[in-house]
Amino acid sequence: MRLLIKNIGMLATPVGNRATAQAEVEKIENAYILCENGVITEIGSGTPQIDCETVDAGGCLVTPGLVDAHTHLIFGGWREHELSMKRQGVPYLEILAQGGGILSTVRKTRAASEEELTQKALSELKNMLCHGVTTCEAKSGYGLDVETELKQLRVAKELCKLQPIELVSTYLGAHALPEEYKNDREGYLRLMEALIERIGTEGLAEFCDVFCETGVFSAEEAERILKKGLACGLKAKMHADEINPIGGTEKAGKMGATSVEHLIAATDEGIEALKDGGAIAVLLPATSFYLDKPYARARDMLRAGVPVAVASDFNPGSCPSSNLQFVMNLACWKYRLTPEEVLNAVTKNAAAAISCADRIGTIEIGKQADVVIWNAPNLDYIFYRFGQNLVKTVIKNGKIEHMKG
Ligand code: IZC
Ligand code: ZN
Fold first, then answer.
1. Which residue owns the Cα nearest ligand 1 atom 5?
2. Tens digit of each residue's pLDDT (9 = 90 or more) over 363-381
3. Ligand 1 pocket by C-beta < 6 Å: which residues?
4. 3-state secondary structure (DSSP) of residue 5
5. Nearest protein CA to atom 7 of ligand 1, as residue
6. Among the atoms of ligand 1, which is closest to the Cα of residue 105?
7. What is the pLDDT of residues 38-55, one digit of tens each?
8. Ligand 1: centre distance to CA 40 (Å)
9. What is the 60 CA–ligand 2 centroid distance (Å)?
10. CA distances in angstroms from 312 to 99, 111, 224, 261, 281, listed in the order given
11. What is the pTM of this model?
């Protein structure tokens, strides 16, 4: 199966297989890309004479498919009932401490059938695809019991078969202390350790993650859970410094976590630990926007030599939008990243944050043919025309999976 993408006005892509900081983007004008059996086999300029299925990019911008490296894709219900509380300034952690927030989504996710969760996530994935996303990470963490955590992970596997976006699964049992373990933290930690063994053996997730935050899980508990994950073959991620810096980032850096996420309140020591440990900072600006929090110190991280990825954090509580283009715009305007730096942050570095940069995240020969054609003449334009969906065509594995209109 061959597909030729021709008449590309500007091909803009990061290069290489590893996360880097951060502005390097290769640009080719008047370009074409040839895909064969889902893989990029030729890139050049001009108009080649190749007899196969062809997409005319119409002189527009072409980039790698977008990678959303942090989502809580699969959950029951929504939390719009929290909107007025949030508008009145009730803090996120207080809503959680009162048994709402994550715990309210846990109740709805436990009550939902696999079929309901699948259909709900499917409709969101459709939205993500038409906004240019071709790969996405999906966390569990709305079950907090064995049955429902496994249900979420199974739904993720099923979703891979039902639609084109590739999913990478993360076990986030340490998302909140479930109500039934309110007086038995140790009991829940042990339950998670046993479940991690099973998830590792059955290959149900690639990563293990912990919400390390005041009143949720301490840095020491996070370290214990992530170490268990590493011992069972699950790579480490951590939600840290979203609201308060309680030392998780430093622990994650030391243990060689693949990524640390949020980092709104990261300290200089935290940033240094990321650098020393080679972790990727996954920043989530739409969460800062929706929780009305400061924006992470992206420029300081880049100055320190920490590669930055940017993701949606799509979830029902702190980011009920899965529009990665909006997130890219926030990264440009609120983190003061250049369009080139943001492109890297949602393609190559995002791919590296989910350990896929050897096959996705750039447009290079040998990489998977995941490509977006934009209704835009150049890279600046997609940050200039904010608030609208500028994606025209999405190609996944060398196949056209979305075309506007
Ligand atoms: O459902 O509130 N921060 N986890 C950590 C979230 C936000 C998701 C939620
Ligand atoms: Zn999250």
1. 211
2. 999 999 999 999 999 999 9
3. 72, 101-102, 105, 211, 239, 242, 315-318
4. strand
5. 318
6. 1
7. 999 999 999 999 999 999
8. 37
9. 34
10. 25, 26, 27, 11, 13
11. 0.98
